[in-house]
UniProtKB/TrEMBL annotation:
The keyword Cytoplasm applies. This is Unnamed protein product. It comes from Ambrosiozyma monospora. It catalyses: Endonucleolytic cleavage to 5'-phosphomonoester. One of its GO terms (biological process) is DNA integration.
């Protein structure tokens, strides 16, 4: 026989064979009897790996390798590489359990008493609006069970016979294994029931402040049936079996608001007890010592008796260090730290799930994962390749990306990660990080000298957010963390925030920020954040949350070194940026990067000197990847990452003079149809002017005349002819209007022309500003 306690860094779980509960060991003339505790260990040395069944002996100071081990492995472990510890069999709390149960009196199940909390149905529509539903056909065995169940409920007083009504519900039988159960379809009644505010506390908030070394879980029997229905609305919950009608006198299962009403009732009973938490009919009690736990159990069991709440002792577990509660495994360590992890059965189901072959398989697989998504750091991102196949018009196609996501999710679940309940009295810390495609955050709490994770969250960035600068993404990661953990970080005296992006530290004291960054910082001001920079290699959890290998497919381009160097050189010759580069603090929003010596505006926009504009615009607009964007899109693209004076005017001129755009691009709008000029309101209110040339030159009043200015009244067709020279200019036109036309006919409302230079000169525009017509 081989005897061992525990090898170094190995967690040991012992078991005791039922056929041989004790073992006798003979050593040095002594005969000692121990509990026959066994453990199967897997361990390795530098050159060998072993798996063997050992007998655990308490209070042993040496390691004994028996002949069974030598015969099996033909080797002996090097003793100098093994450490030994002592272990004791688990304590026996049977006497404490018996003492606690003496305070609970299991009264017969009966109709509960009237209470102020009796539930009242409130409806949005009258019961008469419900359509009668035919009974569900069932086999003979199910019919017999339904009748037997109705008789049992009648004997307990939970239901009573009632007159036939048209709004009855329909019961049917479900089989959970070999055990049948009556289920009533209350969907029609639920559709017109006013919902109560949700009083069901989320699990992660429910376990807040749990701290202790020993636990018990309680299960209430017939939970909802402990609450009465108000007599005025009992007939609302009517159901039909065969030709008979029955209505509930207690709160039924399946009715809307049943869970909320029961939660409010239980909360009122145990509101002053901080050591017990209820989730519907499941309770957990956590204490620091066995003696304290005994007193806590007595208090809870006494209240159950006083309020006529029935305990299912068979499904309850007492004085445990690890319990299964509300679909989670809750463990207590000797130092009082609680850890929460998924159930082994849930992990095993996911690990053994076959590769999906259709959309329904994906839905089933994601359904298993969704229940424990809080334990998967980057759940939304890892499952995205699978969930994308569930689109309405998406054809099922299992790609390498899907297989990688499926494999990674199963491998991640095999690690059985654990979280720890939040404690308001312990210090907290946030670690944040941002990658090119996501942001991640982890909430930690300091237990003794160790930071343990409470929650972790990640979010894939949207399309627009992917264009943000690194600084914006890193600050958004902090904003994201505070928003997600607001329930925990609100009203804290100090919140440590660790980030691996050093500029974030000085950002909180900077005055030269963009409007977006200022708005985000304003949202963070109410929280007492203390920002610290840490090396990226030490920011593992948050960094891992934000860096998603499935989506890290990027093509990035970096400007050549000489081009960046030319920017620094050309700053001195730029008429605007030269003075700013010499003293960035003189202008708001400008700063110089200490490493590259490049000038930035608002910390994210690279300043471009005039001598480099042509090269930049060619790359942005006219390169093969530029696509010859229009003015608006080119400006939008440049504004995100670059800055230079008169940006809009320069871009408009550059795009407007682009030869390719002028020759190839079509008009963005179709030309309008020809329209007749509306009839003027009166004589000389609307005139038309034009120049007729090509005549022979003749002398006239000391000048040479070879053209005629024609002015036509569009109302009466009255025409004036003014002799002019072919060198006719805007000054001559203004002189004719002011000296000859306006004195005779007044100022017209509209003047039509062919847009000749003498008619459209800026001086004429100023003169005729109030006379312009929108169609001119």
């Amino acid at each position: 026989m081989s005897i061992i306690l525990v090898a170094k860094d190995v967690n040991v779980t012992t078991f005791q064979p039922s056929d041989q509960p004790f073992v006798t060991i003979h050593t040095l003339g002594r005969e000692v009897t121990y509990p026959n505790l066994k453990v199967r260990l897997q361990f390795s040395t530098d050159n060998s790996s072993f798996e063997h069944l050992f007998t655990v002996v308490p209070d042993s100071a040496v390691l004994i390798i028996g002949y069974d081990f030598i015969r099996t492995h033909s080797s002996i472990l090097p003793l100098n590489n093994i450490t030994t510890t002592t272990s004791s069999p688990p304590p026996n709390y049977d006497h404490m359990i018996e003492e606690a149960l003496t305070t609970y009196h299991d009264a017969p199940l009966e109709l509960p008493p009237r209470r102020p909390s009796d539930y009242i149905f409130q409806l949005t529509d009258p019961l008469s609006s419900l359509t009668p539903r035919p009974p569900i056909k069932s086999d003979l065995k199910s019919q017999e069970f339904l009748q037997a169940e109705v008789n049992r409920l009648l004997s307990l007083g939970f239901i009573r016979r009632t007159n036939p009504v048209s709004h009855y519900a329909v019961p049917f039988v479900t089989w959970a294994g070999k055990k049948p159960r009556m289920v009533i379809d209350f969907r029609p009644l639920n559709s017109i029931t006013v919902p109560l505010p949700s009083s069901l506390t989320p699990f992660n908030h429910l376990v807040t402040s749990l701290h202790g070394t020993i636990m018990s879980t309680l299960d209430l029997s017939q939970a909802y049936h402990h609450l009465r229905l108000h007599p005025a609305t009992e007939h609302y919950a009517t159901f039909r079996v065969g030709h008979d009608f029955y209505c509930w006198r207690v709160l039924p299962f399946g009715a809307k608001n049943s869970g909320e009403a029961f939660c409010e009732f239980v909360s009122s009973v145990f509101a002053d007890l901080q050591f017990v938490k209820f989730f519907l009919d499941d309770a957990i009690i956590v204490s620091n010592t066995p003696e304290e736990h005994l007193e806590h159990l007595k208090i809870v069991l006494t209240r159950l008796t006083e309020n006529k709440l029935h305990l299912n002792v068979e499904k309850s577990h007492f004085f445990q260090t690890t319990v299964d509660w509300v679909g989670h495994s809750v463990s207590a360590s000797p130092d009082g730290i609680i850890s929460i992890s998924p159930l082994d059965s849930t992990i095993e189901t996911i690990k053994n799930f076959p590769r999906p072959t259709c959309k329904k398989d994906i839905q089933t697989f994601l359904g298993h994962l969704a229940y424990i998504s809080e334990f998967i750091p980057h759940y939304a991102d890892l499952t995205a390749p699978l969930s994308s196949l569930l689109g309405k018009d998406v054809r099922f196609s299992w790609t390498d990306e899907c297989q990688s996501a499926f494999t990674n999710l199963i491998a991640l679940e095999a690690k059985q990660m654990s979280l720890h309940p939040f404690s308001p009295s312990l210090p907290i810390k946030l670690t944040t990080d941002a990658s090119k495609v996501a942001v991640g955050a982890v909430l930690w709490q300091l237990h003794n000298t160790t930071w343990l994770p409470v929650e972790y969250r990640s979010m894939k960035l949207k399309k627009a957010q992917l264009n943000w600068s690194t600084l914006e993404k890193e600050l958004y990661a902090i904003k994201f963390a505070v928003e997600r953990f607001k329930y925990f970080v609100a009203n804290r005296s100090k919140i440590l925030v660790h980030t691996d992006h050093k500029p974030i530290v000085s950002l909180f004291t900077s005055n030269d920020l963009s409007a977006k960054l200022q708005r985000w910082l304003a949202e963070l001001v109410p929280y007492n954040l203390e920002i610290h920079h840490i090396a990226g290699i030490t920011n593992g959890p948050a960094d891992h949350l934000s860096r998603l290998p499935i989506y890290n497919f990027h093509i990035t381009t970096s400007p050549a070194g000489p081009w960046l160097s030319s920017l620094v050189k050309n700053y001195a010759s730029d008429p605007v940026l030269a003075s700013i580069y010499d003293d960035p603090s003189s202008c708001s929003g400008f700063s110089i990067d200490p490493e590259s010596q490049l000038l930035y505006k608002d910390a994210t926009r690279l300043c471009i000197p005039h001598d480099n504009l042509q090269e930049l615009l060619d790359a942005i607009h006219a390169s093969p990847t530029g696509g010859h964007m229009g003015v608006t899109r080119t400006i939008a693209y440049l504004t995100k990452s670059f800055y230079f004076p008169r940006l809009r005017a320069i871009v408009e001129k550059y795009v407007g003079s682009c030869d390719v755009c002028q020759r190839v691009k079509s008009k963005t709008h179709t030309p309008g149809h020809m329209q007749a000029i509306p009839t003027p309101a009166g004589r000389w209110t609307e005139i038309s002017v034009d120049v007729v040339s090509g005549f022979s030159s003749v002398p006239f009043l000391g000048s040479t005349i070879d053209s005629v200015l024609v002015v036509v009244d569009l109302f009466s067709s009255h025409v004036h002819f003014h002799p002019i020279n072919k060198s006719f200019s805007h000054k001559d036109f203004a002189n004719i209007l002011l000296m000859r036309h306006f004195p005779l006919h007044g100022i017209p409302s509209i003047i039509h022309s062919d847009q000749g230079s003498q008619f459209t000169h800026h001086a004429m525009q100023a003169l005729l500003l109030t006379l312009l017509h929108p169609r001119k």
